[in-house]
Amino acid sequence: MKKETRQFIHDVMTLAIPVGFQSLINNLVNMIDGIMIGQLGEACISAVSVSGTFLWLADTFIMGISGGAAIIMAQDYGKGEMKRIKRLFSFVLILASCVALVFFTLMTLFPAQILRIYSSMPTIIAPGVSYMKYLRFSMALNMVSMSIVAMLRSVRSVKLGLYNSMFSCVSNVFFNWVFIFGNLGAPAMGVAGAALGTLIARMIEFVVSLTYLFVFEKNLKFRIQDFDPRLDLSFLKQYAVISVPLLAIDVLNNFSSSVQTMITGRINEYYLSANSIVHNSWMLPSLFLGGIGMAAGVMIGNAIGRKDFEKAKKDSVRFIYAALIFGAFAGAMVQVIRPILSSFYNVLPETLLLAKQMGYAASISVFFQSIARILCNGVIKAGGMTQKILKIDVISTWLIAIPLGYISAFVLHLPAAFLYLILRSSNIVKAFWAFARIKKQDWIQVIE
Question: Does residue 108 contact residue 95 with C-beta atoms inside 8 Å?
Fold first, then answer.
């Protein structure tokens, strides 16, 4: 193996493994939450799933505004522009706090109305409202913590997310066990107890994030006295040009997920519960793929910042092979995990049958999702081509996947497995587009 290839593998693993383990811990906790809530029946599972769809909308705003900053920061880190990085970091922290306040207000004033957007079933709305009562607080804290973690990754400081997960996972599982089922003398709160347990975990994450940022972090070395959110007009415009398409992508992806929930939520209650099982089945094996995508963005961005374009192009090809290998692995693991996970759910046979059928489609879907995630959200995004990524995202989702999904569900009445795959077919389109774009080698843009 060539020295250059060994260094590539070392850099990927150094960046991806902490992020992968963070995601692993978070999703194991989510899976345990799902199993606990699964003991309460289909209605409670669906209520949490529907509430989580709106929570993801809140998260998408943070991913958009921090993701744009991360692209600029990764290139600036390659240049050694630390002062500029700290100013952008400060600005995004203020912006994230404002966005969190907006979503907190919406969830406080209109919880039932929000849930009715996704489902009209009364059995889902009632437990969903009680879940949102505590979810709004954890959402606000998490948005700030997420922005800190996302931006620090761009300067190769990747351990904070792992530390957050380690400190909060035990408390999350423990307090969920206490408040969902009423153990240790606590009241049995059902789905509201799950939200309360999550809130306590998010409070711990928030404290850990701020402590690590201001005291222990060594790459950026951001301290309280460095807080300065002032950006000149040209820098602000540059940030907006990069970030607005990413924000649009994340928001449109959330809306597409919401539309998918609107479609599937009106089929039957079994489909939503089965989808929850299948979702957890493919999330676990795909966790490290998110870390690889993040590593791609940081490594490619740093190389572009140093103007080492030859290395950026060579690494982009290496990431193609990585995407194919890990995508195939994730698809195969779905078939191993899904039957094991299904055995822990207290659901009807109809739900289990649907989950089995949808699991086959999920294996295909996650293979292409992995490719799109690593190449589009990692390699090409680091090159600054956010407007072109937005264009292909709109075409693949809103002109292909959503219309075909609606027709499949309500006109053709296709089986669940076909509907599941068609609703996620945008990843297939994006995967082939990414292959073609990287082959053309015209995706690199230096951010000055």
Answer: no
Across the 448 residues of the chain, what is the mean pLDDT of every consecutive 10-residue run?
81 84 73 71 72 77 86 89 91 91 89 77 76 84 88 87 80 84 84 83 88 90 89 88 86 75 67 78 76 88 88 90 90 87 77 83 90 90 86 93 87 83 91 89 76
The full 3-state SS of the chain, as one line of letters, equals CCHHHHHHHHHHHHHHHHHHHHHHHHHHHHHHHHHHHHCCCHHHHHHHHHHHHHHHHHHHHHHHHHHHHHHHHHHHHHHCCHHHHHHHHHHHHHHHHHHHHHHHHHHHHCHHHHHHHHCCCHHHHHHHHHHHHHHHHHHHHHHHHHHHHHHHHCCCCCCHHHHHHHHHHHHHHHHHHHHHHCCCCCCCCCHHHHHHHHHHHHHHHHHHHHHHHHHHCCCCCCCHHHCCCCCCHHHHHHHHHHHHHHHHHHHHHHHHHHHHHHHHCCCCHHHHHHHHHHHHHHHCCCHHHHHHHHHHHHHHHHHHHCCCHHHHHHHHHHHHHHHHHHHHHHHHHHHHHHHHHHCCCCCCHHHHHHHHHHHHHHHHHHHHHHHHHHHHHHHHHHCCCHHHHHHHHHHHHHHHHHHHHHHHHHCCCCCHHHHHHHHCCHHHHHHHHHHHHHHHCCCCCCCC
Question: Angle at which helices 122-153 and 42-79 pack, to 10 degrees?
Answer: 20
pLDDT confidence of residue 87: 92
Do 370 and 330 contact (CB within 8 A), yes or no? Answer: yes
pLDDT computed for residue 42 by the predictor: 66
Structure tokens at 220: 């950026």
Q: Return d(Cα 62, Cα 103) in angstroms, integer.
A: 11
CB-count exposure of residue 255 (10 Å: 0-12, 13-18, 19+) = middle
Opening angle at CA 149, ends 145 and 154, nearest 5: 150
Closest CA to 153 of 295, 289, 25, 293: 295
- Report the residue count for the chain: 448
Q: How far apart are CA 312 and CA 386, in angstroms?
A: 17
Q: Hey, where are the domains in the chain? A: 3-440
Distance CA 418, CA 265 (A): 16
